[in-house]
């Protein structure tokens, strides 16, 4: 098929205004790719999703900004959340044109492969949610479908966070959540937490020709960098999954001029911590590692336990039939974990392709994920 | 006296076009301050100096750009250079106006004090040179007066360096040089050398959520900063003067983004070394301190030995009657030292005030320096 090229402005008006959510789930994914939904501009896609869900029977729909909650009322004892975000990162540049590529099907090694922004992260997952909503008229569990905006940007803008603040009662009654972020065919449990902080050193400015009159703030970083360099990140087993930690300087700065002893220097440190720790425990740990220094925190996000011990989790793992893995990157399973709902990541596509200009997903991966979730839900 | 305020443009045309170099040397300094001569714009002052010297008898004058060499021909065995730069750093900002202050006399503790850009660095010294040229019709030594441009800027622009390249024969026949940079009443011998270099570390970029896939270039700075932090700068006795060294980080940088293991980091280091070392020996020393790293040199300037052992130096010290001191900052005595001429710093004003918005010099300091040099030269 030929490459379709559009300017971003054309693309914003391109694609189906109405979604056929009963069609093949892979083709549904392509239709979702054809609706522009970079963070902050999810409205057209949210409208299409809301319309499609409203046309179904028996779903109670709540719209909040460009986020949607759609709840079944099958009268079951247990309830599961199926969640995914509608937004994507900005479009990849297309070489030799100012255009963008909504969706392109290619044939690779006998497989149909869908290329385009959102193919991996995570319109395949959203298509699976919509197809399940379309086809499941009954299920072993009641289902709360959640579609949300602003996942790919600053945490405080998160549509899921907003839903949890504004409509907690429609979310907290769930027993389990599946976040359809790409996990390449298996279940990825929990996620590492992450925090960032600065350590600043203070010195005394002086001319470098009379260095003894000053106190060098950069030299004082030696101790901090030595602690970092000597630190041995641990790997923790949590519910059978190995979560590997990391403690890394991500930025360093200091200096006034080539002939001045600097009076200020700073190092910015990122701690990725396993879900065997609460946020407070993780803070206590870095405060111990850097005892004697003040930590100036920039952000702090909890880890999420894998949730693999939960009975619904065990049945999902069995249904998928693959060894679960840990999720290293932070995902919204941590938000579900924070409100007391066990959650796992399970969705089509390879997370390592997310945000790349080469984002793609196999049709068969989307279809298989759909089948696996459908089998599990109707078992 | 009232504060005179001018815009820089007015100031550039202000002040005497002709210098009276026979008047009181302190008032001559004020007249020099009233002629704008920020580096690169020394022409008006150089013209005035050249005219004043041309009106004297028995001086052989060479003009090169805005630098001037004026040589006596007293027929003496020995020859001394008296050298000073004509340029100043940019003007201080005057609060509440866009004006500048050419020269202002104030009364402080019964002393007449001259304020203004160049008061310390170094129009008092230039005034002393001019007054000596005006008044000395004979001397114990022949004298080579040197006035030069572009001292306050990048080393390769130096007017003195240019004179040494273009008119070496008019300089190298001297036995001794006095650089009239401010030394606050005593002789400052030699100067420390200075060099600057970068050390870069290389790592491997990775997502900080998978830190073990990368190699952190900032963590690799730990060893370099530890060497710096543990380094104990030495003080060396050279010809009876104590030269204190310094090895200082002056800048540090590294980092890509808050979630990326950085693959590059750098630290910029300044070594101030005593004149017991040649430039090559100083380079060998830092290469030993940072063995295993490549040093990326930005600049390298030799130290200058104090030159206090030279007979003319000894007689000058005796005449001044103050204990000589080492000069920590780099000055053009190093250029004289490089062409084989012993040189010392001796001029009116406190070097610590140089370049400050509060630059000033006492009339009596300028007058005393003039008398001391005159007595020495005519002894």
UniProtKB/TrEMBL annotation, chains A, B:
Pathway: Amino-acid biosynthesis; L-lysine biosynthesis via DAP pathway; LL-2,6-diaminopimelate from (S)-tetrahydrodipicolinate (succinylase route): step 3/3
Annotated EC: 3.5.1.18
The Peptidase M20 dimerisation domain, residue ranges: 193-290
Pfam families reported in the protein's UniProt record: M20_dimer (PF07687), Peptidase_M20 (PF01546)
Top EC group: hydrolase
Catalysed reactions, semicolon-separated: N-succinyl-(2S,6S)-2,6-diaminopimelate + H2O = (2S,6S)-2,6-diaminopimelate + succinate
Listed cofactors: Zn(2+); Co(2+)
NCBIfam families, per database record: dapE-gram_pos (TIGR01900)
Subunit structure: Homodimer.
UniProt name for this protein: Succinyl-diaminopimelate desuccinylase
